[in-house]
Every structure is written in structure tokens, then in C-alpha cells.
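hey m, so remember when u said the C-alpha cells were messed up on ur end? i reran from scratch. heres the input so u can diff it against urs
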Amino acid sequence: MKRILVTAIVFSFVACNQTTTSESGGQAARDSAATSVQPTTAAAAGPGRRDTVTIKGLLYDAAEITEAEYNKVPEIKPDTSEAVNIRTAAGKVRRSGDSLIFRLENGQEKALVNNNKTDGDDYVEYTYNAYLPAIQSWLVFHAGYEWYAYDLVSARTGEVISTIGIPQFSPDNKYFICSNTDLEAAFTQNGFQLYEVLAEGKVQLLQDQDLESWGPETIKWKDANTLFALQHYYVHNDPEMRENTRFVRLTPRH
């Protein structure tokens, strides 16, 4: 059985407001991240640069920080033991052989069933990670043959949304970002996704960004306008294409 455990590569992202957002929604967006600056050119903040990142015209600068500074900012990081995670699920999640079963709020059940007896493209295995109250959803690690994802299973409806990484929420829980790095193998998406949290735990994808010569292992909010990230990157013109890492702080350029 072949599965990818990709070591990561860099960061990038930033919450932004849609033009259709209401006045109150716009204020919520500004509480999570700045929302308007003059547009920048692709050369100034392209997908191959590691010192800036742009989302819908908003430019953030990256400045190196220490690992200790980075570690002070909390993040969602599930226990590696599914049994431990299930014990914290208040009886709403159980494992029965190859089936991972969820008891929904409407009394029905939702089952995700492993197919791990094959080395083919139909290989699939689900591992329970955590419950995310901000979006009323369970987080599940979804492993394929040569790829992986993280599924969000709605506790209300059983609907499943697939993301590229573990959600990290803004301080006001109005947004979350998922990131993943896969520079070398490229079996999974190298980049980030930004979601807005709507009413009743529903979510809306705002940005789905591929990156090129760098990638984000984890991106998380330090405060409403500042993001911390673990950045993986290649140095241009390095013949050995060695992967480098650094911790960075992302702040909006004024």
C-alpha cells in the first residue's frame, strides 16, 4: 500500500472580503484581515516568490521569525491516535471494523467506509481527527493511493467537504485556512484554501491557490491581521534543489 506523507513547503494566505458581502459582513472580514490595498503586479508577488503573498490585491510581506515565536500561536493539531480522538467525541463517533460512523443531529448516521485491501486507485482509508465546533463538523483524514485530503463531515447534514489541510481559524471564527506543501512529489496540491464560515456551520470557498517554488506546511492567525506560517521553499539556481524551511510572520503592506 502506497500513501504519500509529504513533508511540507511553505505558506501563504490572507482573509479577504468579497464585493457581495453586506456591511456587517464586511466589518467581520476587516476584523479577520485587512481587505483593500492597491493591486500589485504578478512580478511583485508571484506564486514563485517567498517574501510576499497576494490575495485578491492585498499584499502581505513575509518576515522571518523564530521557531519559539511561531510555536506560541496555537493551532489545531489532532492526536495521532484515532482511539484517543474517538473517546473525546461524546459518543457521536464510533469505529466498527472498516466503517467510521457518525451520529448526526437529525438522528441519522453517516458512514465512511475504508477500502484498504487494494493497492489500486480505489484505495481509501478514513481516520477520525477531531470535532470543529466553529463549523459544526467532524475532521477526518482521508488517505488515497498516492494522495490525501482532510474531509469536513457536517454534524447537521452529513455533507462532506474535502480540503487540502487541517483548518486553522481566524480569531473571530469567521474564516479558516487550509494549507499543504508537496513541492517534490506533486501528488497533492501545493498551496492553500481560504474559506468563509457562514450561518449554521456552512462554509464557502473564497480562494483556492496553487503555489510553485514554495509551499505552506501550516498557516495560522496570530491576530486579526497577522498570520504565522511554516514556509518550505527552494533557492533559485540551486543545482541540488535542496528544500529549505523557515518560520515567517505575514503582515499587510500599508
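this time it looks ok to me. The two ends are 50 Å apart (CA to CA). if urs says something different then somethings off w ur setup not the seq
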